[in-house]
């Protein structure tokens, strides 16, 4: 219902509008007439006389009357007459008094009176806030609204002991808590920054104090605001708003900030969101941040038989995490089977994934099998699962490559070859791993020249920085074809690439550099072996020295050294 | 290699009125040579901004773009789009950008099928990529998460200010850009992703129809299908649009062209029935999700056709993320899916903060 409609309705009932207090009743027409003339004081005194009220009570009633009549300006003027600060001062001692005379008989009545009076006062201020809000004076409204919460804190410094909180007081406070963030507009502005697609100017540097955080683009500013809102929830300054959590999840995950997201979710107090939802969201965040062990622990909780043992998302994620570790693979098989069993009805489209995860876990389990029979049994089970999965998701490239790898591990290179080719077809050659699998399978069949053609084709489709693994493969293929000089040439390319990469990325000690060090170490070692096979001992020794610079105490180096 | 031979790094903001008018005129002339007369354009002499929101023109270009072989290197419309973008006329560039959803939308599934030549689409995509590379100087885009124990514009921290530099959580949202002269298949997703980043930058200026197209193609990418039952599908929409246009045109010759196009369209429809789902690595999914977030929760959220399309696309991407068991994608798609559903379920004008007995004529203390 729109505001004007509400006013119309109230207007229509104006004949019966009346006020009542202290068991007395009076019609408001005379008071309204005085108010319409702008004579607030006269209206106030006629109310005080008619209903035997004190000044604040009369003001509260008058303001309420004006608010309901839609005379917002007048309502604000009426409420302005109430001195909140003085009233708080007056209300406080009554509490202190009460506490000092804890055992006196008047105990209860004093508290009740003060609660009632406070409730009345705060409701009046709240109506002032609403009037200001409707008048579009948002900043003033926010200030007044905050003063309500501050007043509650001051008046009830030590809480409200052993008596029930009065309804009206409770309601006013919770409404104020709900309204304040709206008035602050932080949420609305955060959402504007996040979704409008308009690049707002970042806050100017001049307005910043030293050491304070300055967001440099929309999404950083949105995240800052959402984090502040989130913190206000935890401090109880704001009513919980589930949408803020979702916006936060969106903003953080879009930026790849999964671990920061996890720490935000960790801060949510118990009882605010469903614990299984919380565990699952946390598990997703941790697994996205690469902390799979933590994620799995959380999933074990949420998949417990007393919680949500059939939750598909949890089961699939748990199975995926387990499939990456052969010691967990057995546990993963259980999750995957449960997922397959539960992928029914609306979730039928997830049956294929369940089967794929099952295949993964079985394959991993086969690696630690205690006997050959067990191993071959598990491997054929894995193959069966992958083949069933493909019936559900015919064009899912992930299954194709996994099936291909599985076939390759079982030495069924023709089937593996088929899968690799199909994978490249379905992905349009856009994923490097397809090219690599094809080349590996071909070289396993000792079709080296064909493997080299594939590697060259892959190099054509790859940007410079990602060519490292392909070049390495190409060098090995050259060695296999007994073309050591060509292999050396390829290694030379690879070394140049690695060194250029080192120059353009990363500071020493970073993860990237570590990977490159490992790569370069292997290249030098391979070169040393190559030269030693060519009986070029000097060159071999130089290469070994280079390799030693990366890993001084490597067994592989000593082995090669020994051979030389 | 730089496809943009412009000294100015931000051609979207260059202006030289008379020069621009000339560019606009010749651009429209070339377009009418390619597409035949466009009713609404013949009379209008005004600015190119009307071009961006001209439904007739948008409809005609969309229809042509959806023809089979439309992405070929010798396709005149692709050439026009490429030349127009390179003209550095800021508003004309926006016109080209508004067709990115269709171009990228068709390009990725077709590239997977490797059925037709796509050099025309690729030239446009590379031009957009190069533009973005130039405008951000190849630099990566990073995001840092603040530490709330340090004050900011919006809050004050009671904790004593630390003297040492604050350790920020920094991630790279979009890595640095290297120039690309051709589309290598392993870089395809990245090039389209960067073009989408450019689209997102200008999304506030894009017409709603363009955003709706994007949502529909997201669904195609995720599922390899158009709409579930085939009703209201991308191709059929174009077909009906074409019919309308052909019937509204009084020009006999154009009518013939129209029916020929219709036939081709039907052929195309059967060809594109065999869509395949597209690999969706994060570098492509991330900008797509930013656009969807805008469509679903941004300033146009009152447009039901748009939010419905965006919600359907988000649902399909979420299902896809679950199938891929990709945690990050599940988080991102799941959150906007829930927000989108929340938004469509709650009635908008309910003030929870209003006092309880607001309408009660009896006021009591």
From TrEMBL, chain A:
<dbReference type="InterPro" id="IPR011990">
    <property type="entry name" value="TPR-like_helical_dom_sf"/>
</dbReference>
<dbReference type="InterPro" id="IPR019734">
    <property type="entry name" value="TPR_rpt"/>
</dbReference>
<dbReference type="InterPro" id="IPR043376">
    <property type="entry name" value="NPG1-like"/>
</dbReference>
<protein>
    <recommendedName>
        <fullName>Tetratricopeptide repeat protein 7A</fullName>
    </recommendedName>
</protein>
From TrEMBL, chain B:
<dbReference type="Pfam" id="PF09790">
    <property type="entry name" value="Hyccin"/>
</dbReference>
<comment type="similarity">
    <text>Belongs to the Hyccin family.</text>
</comment>
<feature type="compositionally biased region" description="Basic and acidic residues">
    <location>
        <begin position="254"/>
        <end position="272"/>
    </location>
</feature>
<dbReference type="InterPro" id="IPR018619">
    <property type="entry name" value="Hyccin"/>
</dbReference>
<dbReference type="GO" id="GO:0005886">
    <property type="term" value="C:plasma membrane"/>
</dbReference>
<keyword id="KW-1003">Cell membrane</keyword>
<keyword id="KW-0472">Membrane</keyword>
<dbReference type="GO" id="GO:0005829">
    <property type="term" value="C:cytosol"/>
</dbReference>
<feature type="region of interest" description="Disordered">
    <location>
        <begin position="227"/>
        <end position="272"/>
    </location>
</feature>
<dbReference type="GO" id="GO:0072659">
    <property type="term" value="P:protein localization to plasma membrane"/>
</dbReference>
<protein>
    <recommendedName>
        <fullName>Hyccin</fullName>
    </recommendedName>
</protein>
<keyword id="KW-0963">Cytoplasm</keyword>
<dbReference type="GO" id="GO:0046854">
    <property type="term" value="P:phosphatidylinositol phosphate biosynthetic process"/>
</dbReference>
């Amino acid at each position: 219902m729109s505001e004007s409609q509400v006013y119309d309705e109230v207007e229509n009932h104006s004949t019966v509008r009346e006020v009542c207090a202290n068991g007395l009743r009076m019609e408001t027409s005379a008071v309204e007439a005085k108010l319409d003339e702008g004579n607030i004081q006269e209206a106030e005194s006629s109310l005080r006389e008619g209903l035997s009220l004190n000044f604040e009570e009369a003001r509260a009633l008058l303001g309420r009357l004006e608010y309901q009549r839609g005379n917002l300006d007048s309502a604000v003027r009426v409420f302005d007459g109430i001195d909140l600060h003085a009233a708080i001062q007056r209300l406080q001692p009554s509490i202190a008094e009460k506490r000092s005379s804890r055992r006196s008989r008047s105990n209860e009545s004093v508290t009740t009176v003060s609660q009632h009076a406070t409730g009345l006062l705060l409701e009046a201020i709240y109506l002032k806030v609403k009037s200001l809000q409707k008048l579009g004076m948002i900043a003033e409204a926010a200030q007044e609204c905050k003063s309500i919460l501050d007043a509650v804190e001051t008046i009830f410094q030590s809480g409200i002991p052993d008596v029930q909180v009065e309804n009206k007081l409770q309601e006013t406070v919770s409404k104020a808590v709900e309204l304040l963030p709206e008035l602050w507009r932080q949420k609305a502005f955060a959402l504007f920054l996040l979704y409008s697609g308009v690049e707002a100017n970042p806050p100017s540097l001049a307005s910043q104090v030293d050491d304070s955080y300055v967001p440099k683009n929309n999404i950083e500013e949105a995240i800052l605001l959402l984090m502040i809102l989130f913190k206000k929830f935890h401090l109880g300054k704001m009513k919980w708003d589930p949408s803020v959590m979702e916006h936060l999840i969106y903003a953080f995950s879009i930026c790849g900030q999964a671990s920061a997201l996890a720490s935000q979710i960790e801060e949510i107090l118990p009882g605010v969101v469903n614990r299984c939802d919380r565990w699952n969201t946390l598990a997703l965040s941790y697994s996205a941040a690469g902390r799979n062990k933590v994620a799995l622990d959380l999933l074990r909780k949420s998949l417990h038989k007393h919680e949500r043992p059939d939750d598909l998302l949890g089961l699939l994620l748990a199975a995926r995490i387990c499939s990456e570790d052969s010691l967990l693979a057995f546990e993963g098989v259980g999750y995957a089977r449960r997922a397959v069993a539960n992928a029914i009805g609306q979730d039928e489209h997830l049956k294929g994934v369940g089967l794929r995860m099952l295949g993964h876990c079985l394959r991993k389990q086969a690696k630690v099998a205690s006997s050959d029979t067990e191993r071959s049994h598990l491997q054929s089970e894995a193959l069966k699962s992958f083949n069933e999965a493909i019936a559900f998701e015919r064009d899912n490239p992930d299954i194709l490559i996994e099936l291909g790898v599985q076939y390759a591990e079982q030495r069924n290179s023709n089937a593996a070859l088929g899968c690799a080719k199909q994978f490249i077809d379905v992905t349009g050659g856009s994923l490097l791993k397809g090219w690599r699998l094809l080349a590996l399978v071909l070289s396993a069949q000792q079709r080296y020249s064909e493997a080299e053609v594939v590697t060259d084709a892959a190099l054509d489709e790859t940007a410079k920085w990602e060519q490292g693994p392909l070049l390495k493969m190409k060098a090995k293929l050259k060695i296999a074809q007994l073309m050591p000089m060509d292999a050396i040439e390829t290694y030379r390319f690879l070394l140049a690439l690695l060194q250029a990469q080192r120059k353009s990325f990363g500071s020493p000690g970073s993860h990237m550099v570590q990977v490159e060090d490992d790569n370069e170490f292997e290249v030098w070692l391979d070169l040393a072996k190559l030269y030693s096979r060519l009986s070029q001992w000097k060159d071999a020794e130089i290469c070994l020295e280079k390799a030693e610079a990366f890993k001084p105490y490597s067994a592989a180096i000593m082995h090669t050294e020994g051979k030389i | 290699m730089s496809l943009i031979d412009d000294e100015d790094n931000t051609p979207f903001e260059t202006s030289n009125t008379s020069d621009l008018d000339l560019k606009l005129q010749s651009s429209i002339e070339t377009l009418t040579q390619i597409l035949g007369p466009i009713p609404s354009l013949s009379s209008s002499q005004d600015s190119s901004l009307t071009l961006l929101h001209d439904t007739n023109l948008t409809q005609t270009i969309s229809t042509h773009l959806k023809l089979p072989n439309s992405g070929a290197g010798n396709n005149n419309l692709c050439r026009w789009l490429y030349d127009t973008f390179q003209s550095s006329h800021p508003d004309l560039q926006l016109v080209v950008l508004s067709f990115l959803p269709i171009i990228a939308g068709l390009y990725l599934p077709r590239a997977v099928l490797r059925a037709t030549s796509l050099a025309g689409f690729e030239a446009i995509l590379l031009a957009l990529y190069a533009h973005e590379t130039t405008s951000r100087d190849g630099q990566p885009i990073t995001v840092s998460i603040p530490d709330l124990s340090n004050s900011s514009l919006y809050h004050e921290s009671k904790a004593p200010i630390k003297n040492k530099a604050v350790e920020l959580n920094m991630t790279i949202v979009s890595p640095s850009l290297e120039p690309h002269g051709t589309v290598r298949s392993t870089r395809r997703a990245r090039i389209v992703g960067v073009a989408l980043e450019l689209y997102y930058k200008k999304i506030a200026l894009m017409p709603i129809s363009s955003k709706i197209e994007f949502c529909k193609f997201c669904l195609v990418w995720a599922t390899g299908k158009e709409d579930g039952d085939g009703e209201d599908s991308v191709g059929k929409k174009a077909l009906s649009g074409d019919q309308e246009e052909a019937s509204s045109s009084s020009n006999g010759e154009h009518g013939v062209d129209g029916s020929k196009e219709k036939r081709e369209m039907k052929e195309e429809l059967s060809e594109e029935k065999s869509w395949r789902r597209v690999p969706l690595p994060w570098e492509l999914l991330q900008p797509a999700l930013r656009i969807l977030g805008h469509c679903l929760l941004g300033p146009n959220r009152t447009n039901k056709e748009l939010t419905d399309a965006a919600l359907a696309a988000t649902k399909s991407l979420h299902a896809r993320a679950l199938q891929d068991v990709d945690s990050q994608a599940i988080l991102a798609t799941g959150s906007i899916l829930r927000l989108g559903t929340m938004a469509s379920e709650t009635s908008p004008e309910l003030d929870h903060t209003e006092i309880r007995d607001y309408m009660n004529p009896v006021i009591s203390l």
